[in-house]
Structures
1.
Amino acid sequence: MKLDNRELIAKKIAEELQDGEVVNLGVGIPTLVAKYIENHNVYLQTENGLIGMGPPPAEENIDIDLIDAGKTPVTITPEASFFDSAFSFGMIRGGHVDVAVLGTLEVDCYGEIANWAVPNQPILGVGGAMDLVAGAKKVIVASTLFTKDGSPKLVKKLTLDSSGERKVDQFVTEYANFMFQDGEVIVKDIYGSLSFEELEEKIGFPLKFKITK
Amino acid sequence: MKKLRKPEELSILFEDSMRLLVGGFGISGTPLTVLDALAKFEAGNYEVVSNNLGDNGKGLHKVFMAGKIDKAIGSFFTINKEAIEAWSKGELEIELLPQGTLAEAIRCGGAGIGGFYTPTALGTKLAEGKEVREIDGVRYLFEKAIKGDIALIKADKADKAGNLVYHSTARNFNPMMATAAKIVIAEVDEIVEIGEFSPEEIVTPHIYVDYIVESKYVKQGGSYIETR
């Protein structure tokens, strides 16, 4: 079965996760990652106050007070625990969450991201995005590489509002997995329909190629 | 039971321009019954501290639609279309804080701490005008603690002394808010005898709770239904 772009990104990210890691999945493509980590033993944290998030419940078992950060009903795993919001963000900022998987609008060549302020709309929501950017030990960004009008989300310099000084570790797209080193974008892995040269041309600035597997 | 009140009996507590701390994430863990009553009380011009302004026409949404909120401090108002509209017309002031900063500010407010340094939001628009300080080689942003006049919180159960236990992710901001206001009103689904909770499971000790209100809402499938 051929995966659509969103599913492919989710699957690639699931492959990056290690056994025993504490992982926070953002809304959108990051949520899909959960479907592909069945063979791993990772602990899913959700910032509204739960560690040990399980798969979605059957319709008849929905409890709307048992939800993820996107307000979708979830279940709990046997070792799960609940806590308040201050404790939860203490867990995030305190470096107790190994990986945050976040959506994005833009990533610059240093790995700084803009993922909260939607263009041409009043900025009235940030949620936990900035806390996760600042606090998680490792940040993996999950997004399609191009916007609907075809412009790359990987840019030399952010044009949208930054989510924080902290740089992300990886940017996983449907074409390639990018890493960042002192302003250089390193292609870690290519698996889509575009070659390295085609990616470089479409992104519009030089990339480095280094398979690290 | 000396702390138990009917929602309408609470009106004497509220005065114009008070700062209210209101629990909930979306509307999970929101004191829906107390907020229904608040929307009808005479007082108004409130400054509200809450993650968002209700959802799906419930909770703080009703208080806002009744014209009683002048300012909202929270992390996610994107879902509150009417509030965004009011903000763009200059009818509502909004102060946006990252969710973890909001939670920690309230925790500090209730714990006798004046403020705190956090790495969150450094280098963003939300850091504008705020002090930056380097501690052991790491840069942090200063955020002030938040306290309120009245906290309106939601718990699962109270015992007759006012000890509270919470249900799953409906806990969210409620335990901190219970510590950070002069008056605390807790809406609960059930009231039990003293001694039914193990002391280990109590999250909010009774000393923080001034008034208890029984919720009129029950959960049915995917929503909260008003029943009683």
Note: Helices of chain A lie at 5-16, 29-32, 85-93, 129-135, 196-203.
2.
Amino acid sequence: MIELIGVTKLFGGRAAVRDLHLTVPTGAFCALVGTSGCGKSTTLRMINKLLPHDGGQIHIDGQQISQFNEQTLRRRIGYAIQSTGLFPHWTVAANIGLVPNLLGWPKAKVQERTRELMALLGLDEGTFWHKYPSQLSGGQAQRVGVARALAADPDILLMDEPFGALDPITREHLQNEMLRIQSRLRKTVVFVTHDMDEALKLATHVGVMHEGRLVQLASPETLLRQPANGYVESLLGSQDRGLKLAGLKTLAEVVQPDDKWIGTAARGQTVLNLSDSARTALSAMLWSGQNCLPVRNEQGQLVGEVTLDQLCRLSESKA
Amino acid sequence: MSVKAQTNRVLLALPFAALAALWGLDFVSVQPNRIMPGTGQSLVAALGWPGALLLSGGVLAILLNAWRITSPRFWLTLALATLLLALLPLALHWAAQRHVPADQPIARIGLGAGFWALVFLLCLMIIEVLQRLRAGTHWRLLVMAVVLGSLFWFISTGRLDELALLREYQSRSRQFGTALRGHLMLVGGAVGVSLVMGFGLAVQILRRPSWQKPVLGVLSFFQTIPSLALFGLLIAPLSALSAQFPWLQQFGIRGIGWAPAVLALIGYSLLPMVRNTWVALDGVPAGVMEAARGMGMSPLQAFVRVRLPLAVPVVLEGVRITTIQAIGLTAVAALIGAGGFGTFIFQGLGQAANELILLGAIPTILLALLADMIFTALAALTAGYRKEVATS
């Protein structure tokens, strides 16, 4: 658990972060969103003491970070930044093994862990072990960056716009990987981004920052339904809020699986999955011109259908 | 790396000029002894028709090859030019055999304008081809090694003993050894000290950016003082110092000799050393250093394991420039009695003996080339992770 209590950071007399209160429960994925200069990166870098804080307290698992030695603290916290942070003169394997080596793990254990992480991030060992960062694509380099952050199995992961420099397709791919990894590892993550869609997609807690203050901290759904002020609303984009909300819901929350469907064949061309979002379902309806589409489960069996009415009610329900 | 087939005008003009120089200027001169002026010998007179035609044929082949030249034929030109350069000592050996009878141990062969023009133009051709081919460092080193290797083989087997240059060497072989040692020690001392001092200053500038302007300003000022003047200016304070503390003289610290020379050389060496080292250390991407700290490296670990190794290739570039500059400047330091190859140059100037000047000048140039080779190779070696990018 990470707690920031009334934290302030001054840069030359100007407050970059003002009286910030933020609690990230263990296992939560907290995204800090805001325009550049809003203090989100500064906040992140105070947590691992890359920047000292000028006021307030920062606790990790109940202990003040000022009690920790800088290096000891950082080795306990995973840290991932844009791919530029890889060491260009070290191979992929050496980059990933950095923190375990700093911690003095035995060589064999470091190698084993590096292998594990390369497998976890879909990096083929034979291809990438001896490669240098300059030989990697942006997406591959970023995978190495995430693997390096996870190497010593830290409880806490700090990520500073890790996918910021990637093209949209690679970025989405890595976001999905991140969701998959997080569902397995359940780390406490603080993730800085300027991309609201990325935050809504990945986070359990979204913190919106503006001019050094935390304007709102809420779950993605609450944020969409009840933005605290006009600034948050403008970040969410008022026009397609409905779609973003629909993007948070899966059809599993809408459709009651019914055994009577099992065994029947789908009539139309378009069949949805239970894991698809309501947004995907809406899009499919617009595209196919039908207001009712069949849904199947992970095994590919039909389990029900979803109607346009149901989807509309979904967005209204708790308004 | 394919080069479009079009005529290369440089490779057309250079061999043309080389042919004109070969046939229009004296190739060598023959002197009966050290004092008598030499008589110039044309290419045919020097080498005889077979030799003259062989040499001209090689140059002509390069000229013809320039017509609608393609990538593989650039390699042919490179091979031809390197071969000609490497075989020039053989041409001199032939000329000596024709013109210096074995029973005249003081007769000698001087190098003529035609010979020097050919050497110079062949070097230009090689540079042009290497640039067109975008050939890597290792090709440059290979060409140098072939040419220098051939030269040293001809010298060490005594086949060039009749050259005036080597006659001068034979009568001064012991002084030559002393001069070489003196030159190397002056350069090595100055570069070594300035590397240590320069590194310290560069690290300080990196830590305190406000130091950058004053430090580089003072060092730039040193560079503007003419070397001759600086050597001279140091005589007075060092004389005074050694007069005040006579025990300093035991270590050779006097107004003249190695002490003022090394001081002046360090003064000149600091600017390129500090500037390159600072640029190298400062040029390490901020993201990389941030990651190093963020991962939990101590400041010392981050410096030694990340910043320094990434900076080494550029630091070595600074050492290379500094060393070459110091090798040249040391030749001037002979004026204040510091020794080195400059001794021969100034003796030769005094006696109007061209070959003696060359005996000082050529080893100085060779030393500079050798230093260039060594540091270029080292820099390429330490930047190995970058080279892999080019080949992938």
Note: Chain B touches chain A at residues 285, 287-288, 290-298, 301, 306, 309-310, 385-386, 388-389, 392 (CB under 8 Å).
